[in-house]
Write a structure and sequence with these properties.
By secondary structure, this protein is an alpha/beta fold. Helices cover about 50% and strands about 10% of the residues. The longest helix is centred in the C-terminal third of the chain and has 49 residues, at about 265-315.
Length: about 325
């Protein structure tokens, strides 16, 4: 039978934008983004959001990676357990098939394995777990489904360019991102897609000339993300939403900025998250299609190996192989 797409696992890492500063309730961005992706990709998405309020890239590198390591360790433990279970099942099948030769192939990688072990909270970090479900396909914050992390979305830069006058230039920011990405890649593997969205800083109530300076700095730092995405494999950059998108949202919903005048409110987060989701959709669709082709080829090879082993086991002694 044809293999159906498995659930996809998305990890969001970031600063106050991932934490949801400016929201009156739970963080809106992770849930809205993954719900949008689930609807567009027509697949359930399991996600985790690791947000550190006030974090720059160095803070994320020093703190969040510890949780990523734990998540990956959990995944590896579950993979080992599933592999052992599968080996036991196959051994029992082989014993049964020797008595009555009838090959029954097992579909692999299709069962959902849930766990409720969540990582503990970090000092100075706010890690929010929110469960969401859409009508047909949904996003779920639980322990990751089988298969490891498929995509990581990293919101960064806002707290880095705040330190510009202290020497944290855009060139230094690029170096920090590359170091973080290198260590993150060791944890999530070469096939995981890493996405860096631009900073949504245009809609603020900052006074001039501060607003213009902040906007300029955000573009300079976002440009480093864009250039890195061009040069690195499995790294993507999502540009800022068009000004018209913010205008339409304000005309329809009213205010999109929180009371602090800097962070988005619930509406602003949702508008931004859905923009990121729309931009990520064709990228992830192509990426997941590639991964599914690889998975199908691997399963085909495993089935062929199983069939060959079974034929050898059932061959009468002394009969030459074909």
């Amino acid at each position: 039978p044809e293999m159906r797409p498995r659930n996809r696992n998305v990890l969001l890492i970031g600063d106050s934008l991932v934490v949801g500063i400016g929201c009156e309730s739970s963080p809106v961005m992770p849930k809205a983004l993954c719900s949008q992706l689930a609807q567009l990709l027509k697949v359930d998405i399991t996600w985790r959001a690791l947000g550190v309020n006030g974090a720059d890239v160095r803070t994320m590198h020093a703190n969040v990676l510890n949780i990523v390591k734990k998540v990956q360790a959990e995944q590896e433990e579950k993979r080992v357990q599933r592999r052992m279970s599968q080996e036991i099942l196959e051994e029992a099948q082989r014993a049964e098939q020797k008595a009555q030769p009838a090959v029954t192939q097992q579909r692999e990688g299709l069962q959902k394995h849930d766990s409720h072990g969540h990582p503990g909270p970090l000092a100075s970090a706010l890690i929010d777990f929110v469960r969401g479900k859409t009508k047909e396909f949904g996003s779920h914050e639980v322990a990751f489904d089988e298969g490891g992390i498929d995509a990581v979305v990293i919101m960064c830069g806002l707290n880095d360019f705040k330190k510009f006058l202290g020497g944290r230039t855009n060139a230094v920011f690029r170096e920090d991102m590359e170091k973080f990405l290198a260590d993150l890649r060791e944890q999530v593997g070469p096939d995981c897609l890493v996405v860096f969205p631009a900073i949504p800083i245009e809609e603020t109530r900052l006074p001039e000339p501060i607003k213009t300076v902040v906007s300029y700095l955000s573009y300079a730092f976002d440009e480093e993300k864009r250039l890195m995405a061009i040069q690195k494999a499995r790294v993507e950059f999502i540009p800022k939403p068009a000004i018209d998108l913010w205008k339409e949202a304000k005309d329809k919903y009213g205010e999109v900025v929180a009371q602090d005048g800097v962070h988005p409110n619930e509406v602003g987060y949702k508008v931004f998250a859905e923009h990121v989701g729309r931009e990520m959709f064709p990228i992830l669709k192509k990426h997941f299609q590639h991964l599914e082709e690889q998975a199908k080829a691997k399963i085909k090879m495993q089935r062929e190996r199983f069939d060959d082993n079974l034929k050898r086991a059932l061959r009468p002694e002394g009969e030459p192989s074909a």
